[in-house]
Design the sequence.
């Protein structure tokens, strides 16, 4: 363990080297976290944001460019089209009234951003919530600093702090200086993103499921985790999963046979071509002004730097796992952003987004809209909840909840190092044959391995210096996330959206329910009707005795 | 992956060290930044965007590339080109105050 990080699971007011007090603590400084922080600050709260990288470049938004889907006022046709744009692929899991609220809110936040000076390039309603990543996140950084939000860069949260089970802050390290820190706060907002398992998909290196791990350690569970068999299409050996070039391309298998489909919907077809013929290729065949002019920056830069003319030659492509980043699973929250753990809120990709996108992708338009809408609603409600909380609830000794990777149990087992663990988890989660197309036998086989990794890591995984401590926690989050995804996938014996079972190829109307998954040493699942809001409430009895908690 | 820091162009401002979201670089203002953890690079090109003097080159490949030749990259106008592709003028990146 870092020489500076407290080993005790009881955190005193001066246990860490830097100890701060705030109304609202936001963990994660990409789009959703930044907007939640701004909104909470605007509501009068004293706000701290901790980000494991640099607020401005961290997170998937900074490395991408896309617009937030929104509804224009007084345009009935546009309203209807926007609400129903993805309805046909949502597999009966979306909630139209909820979608309308999110996209209406996205419009209002867009207008608010404009009034604050946000000019992503060009005026006009279509550019209202365009988010060229580098510009947008730099704008938000400056906005937060001007507003008096305190930002701690390079400061990964390692664990949540609680007072008799109520989330009351978080603690972590500065990965550059090694300084340990704690922030006590009346409300904590998780904005840590999804988990792409370090697949190399653009901008996802920091998206390792850290928030899932910390939330589960204080009793949270997850829904929608099985709708996660999504991969991004990228030129081979690149990170370039972004860009709108897919819909302008024709895809081929290794034998040169043209594939019958393009765009995002081609992912399973491309996966099949790679599995069956060994490779897949693409060529831009339908000129798209965005592609030609370099409007899709990442793809444009890739082509220029490798000397590729994508319209004149075929180029090899591969599929990079995007996990729960572009999919929908995560922490269920209510419209105020509250999780089922008191004191804990969540925004953006770390949350369950099935109401918004069903069993399909939440990425791009819906995701940006959700980051802004959930940031707006949650920032306000967290500020209200925090300022109503008595300061003495934040004083004295708090429980420090970090376990695996932070406070090993010293039981039996020889843990691997964090890089070996990451590789071992990736061996089960990244392969197309295991995760794009799922089967009971491969899921069970992978779960056996992941359960073994968990047991040995629980016993002895630990970091050395601050950077190693972070990597150990990330490795623990990768194992835990993988187990939750595969246990949920095992329980859904049908194919629906981004959950494809080759042993159950059809959708089963009798399985139109939500699957909740949670737990550590014994992962559990249960089901509830999709309209059942009681799903949102905690069910402690599901936690098996003796769990690492 | 980040491959090249051009020593003669670098003004030792540490903007890349600060801006990298995955903590790849080492160095204080006044030092030539060192690519200390290339394996952690996610090829997001954002250090290039934040460099005010076009002193960095990020290869578009996600594995180390030993074949790069500086003169070829420069003659093709590729060094620092990402900043211009996203509309950030060389030498005029948006300014952002430091966090605490």
Sequence:
């Amino acid at each position: 363990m870092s020489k500076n990080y407290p080993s005790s699971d009881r955190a005193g007011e001066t246990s860490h080297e830097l100890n701060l007090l705030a109304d609202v603590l936001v963990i994660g400084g990409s789009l959703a976290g930044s907007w939640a922080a701004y909104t909470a600050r605007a509501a009068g709260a004293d706000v701290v944001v901790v980000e494991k990288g640099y607020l401005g470049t961290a997170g998937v938004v900074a490395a991408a460019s896309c617009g937030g889907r929104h509804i224009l006022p007084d345009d009935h046709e546009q309203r209807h089209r926007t609400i129903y744009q993805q309805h046909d692929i949502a597999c009966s899991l979306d909630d139209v009234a909820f979608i309308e609220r999110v996209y209406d809110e996205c419009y209002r936040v867009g207008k608010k951003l404009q009034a604050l000076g946000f000019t992503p390039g060009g005026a006009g309603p279509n550019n209202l919530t365009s988010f060229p990543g580098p510009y947008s996140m730099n704008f938000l950084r400056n906005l937060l600093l001007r507003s008096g939000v305190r930002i701690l860069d390079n400061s990964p949260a390692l664990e949540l702090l609680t007072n008799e089970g109520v989330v009351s802050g978080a603690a972590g390290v500065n990965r550059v200086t090694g300084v340990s820190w704690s922030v006590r706060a009346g409300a904590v907002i998780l904005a840590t993103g999804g988990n792409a398992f370090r697949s190399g998909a653009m901008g996802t290196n920091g998206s390792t499921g850290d928030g899932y791990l910390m939330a589960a350690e204080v009793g949270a569970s997850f829904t929608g985790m099985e709708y996660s068999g999504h991969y991004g299409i990228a030129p081979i050996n690149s990170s370039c999963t972004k860009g709108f070039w897919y819909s302008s391309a024709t895809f081929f298998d290794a034998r040169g046979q043209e594939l019958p489909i393009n765009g995002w919907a081609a992912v399973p077809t491309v996966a099949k071509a790679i599995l069956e013929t060994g490779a897949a290729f693409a060529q831009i065949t339908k000129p798209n002004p965005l592609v030609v002019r370099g409007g899709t920056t990442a793809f444009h830069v890739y082509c220029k730097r490798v000397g590729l003319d994508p319209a004149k030659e075929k180029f090899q492509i591969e599929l990079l796992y995007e996990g729960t980043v572009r999919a929908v699973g995560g922490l269920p929250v209510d419209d105020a952003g509250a999780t089922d753990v008191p004191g804990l809120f969540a925004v953006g990709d770390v949350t369950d987004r099935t109401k918004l996108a069903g069993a399909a992708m939440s990425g791009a338009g819906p995701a940006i809209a959700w980051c802004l809408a959930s940031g707006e609603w949650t920032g306000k409600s967290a500020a209200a909840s925090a300022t109503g909380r008595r300061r003495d609830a934040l004083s004295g000794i708090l429980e420090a909840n970090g376990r695996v990777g932070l406070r090993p149990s010293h039981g039996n087992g020889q843990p691997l190092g964090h890089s070996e663990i990451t590789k071992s988890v990736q061996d089960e989660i990244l392969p197309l044959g295991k995760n794009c197309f799922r089967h009971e036998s491969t899921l069970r086989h992978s779960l056996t391995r992941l359960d073994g990794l968990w047991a040995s890591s629980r016993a002895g995984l630990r970091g050395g210096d601050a950077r190693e401590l972070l990597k150990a926690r990330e490795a623990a989050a990768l194992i835990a996330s993988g187990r939750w995804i595969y246990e949920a996938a095992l329980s859904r014996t049908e194919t629906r959206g981004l959950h494809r079972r080759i042993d159950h190829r059809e959708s089963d109307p009798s399985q139109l329910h939500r699957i909740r998954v949670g737990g550590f040493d014994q992962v559990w699942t249960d089901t509830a009707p999709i309209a059942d809001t009681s799903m949102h409430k905690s069910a402690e009895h599901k936690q098996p005795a003796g769990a690492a908690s | 992956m980040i491959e090249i820091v051009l020593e003669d162009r670098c003004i030792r401002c540490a903007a890349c060290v600060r801006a990298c979201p995955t903590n790849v670089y080492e160095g204080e203002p006044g030092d030539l930044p060192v690519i200390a953890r290339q394996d952690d690079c996610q090829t997001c090109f954002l250090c290039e965007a934040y460099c005010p003097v076009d002193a960095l080159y990020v290869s578009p490949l996600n594995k180390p590339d030993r074949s790069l030749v500086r003169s070829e990259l420069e003659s093709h106008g590729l060094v620092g080109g990402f900043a211009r592709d996203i509309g950030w003028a060389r030498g005029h990146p948006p300014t952002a105050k430091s966090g605490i």
User: Anything to note?
Assistant: Chain A has three domains: 15-63+131-225+324-351+365-400, 231-321, 409-504. DSSP finds 15 helices and 18 strands in chain A. The longest helix of chain A spans residues 466-491. Residues 525 and 535 of chain A are 12 Å apart (CA to CA).
